[in-house]
Amino acid sequence: MFVCTGGHRISTTQYPNENEFNLLSQAAAERAIAEVGQSLHAFCDALAEGLDSANAWIQSEWGENLVHSDRDTMIANVANELIMRHVIEDAPACVRCPECGRFYIQRQVYENSYDGFVPEAAAQS
Ligand SMILES: [Zn+2]
User: Fold this and answer.
1) Rounded to two decimals, what is the model's pTM?
2) Host domain of residue 118
């Protein structure tokens, strides 16, 4: 639960949530694209050698939890984890109040403090 300075309660327990975002700079996006590409290339090389090799690569990256015997599930897990690791986890969280449009941007990733911004139209009325 997040309460905006206008007093509106914003649910943050629902996932996925239309009121929550991640703020990714162009530089961070470029780094993420390069890092996902490099990791995907390494994973595809391992997968070309077989499922055991691919699972060994997965285990070296994330441990036992993502090791899977089904090739399609394995690929989906790797794609999901690469996006999470390189795109979402590095980007500050943002929350938008659906009632008044105020926007709150996390000061640091993994920190529970936010800077709030009021839409210009609301500030002038
Ligand atoms: Zn609000």
Assistant:
1) 0.72
2) 1-23+93-125
